[in-house]
Specification:
single chain; 124 residues; alpha+beta; Ubiquitin-like (UB roll); 2 domains; 3-stranded mixed beta sheet
């Protein structure tokens, strides 16, 4: 049975199309609020990760154990790592190969991370 539209002589009852438009507008508004909230949450998460890694996991100390051929300053310069670098981004294999390629009389290099802020380089 088809629904008869109600007669409203003074305009107090809204028709179905107006209600449907309001529902769609409300649904669209909720989707926009959800999308903006998700973007803000993602931006805050990235900011927290950056700040946390920069301040808590930066290289504050580089310990070098070396033999008698090269000084600690030469090994540090060949490594290419400086204090203040983020410890997670230091590639131990790359540092090891860089030291071995620049300093020819080195037999082996061991690079380890000692969290939260120390990088240990052992040269033989």
């Amino acid at each position: 049975m088809a629904k008869k539209p109600q007669e409203d002589p003074i305009g107090m009852i809204e028709n179905d199309s107006t209600l449907e438009r309001q529902r769609r507008r409300e649904a669209r508004r909720k989707k926009i609020i959800f999308a903006v909230g998700a973007v803000l949450l993602f931006a805050m998460l990235i900011t927290v990760i950056f700040v946390f890694s920069k301040f808590f996991f930066s290289v504050r100390e580089i310990e070098i154990k070396s033999g008698k051929i090269y000084s600690e300053a030469e090994i540090l310069e060949a490594s290419g790592v400086s204090e203040g670098s983020i410890l997670f981004t230091v590639d131990a294999g790359e540092v090891s190969s860089r030291i071995q390629s620049e300093l020819p009389f080195i037999v082996s290099v061991t690079v380890t991370r000692d969290y939260p802020g120390t990088l240990k380089i052992s040269v033989k």
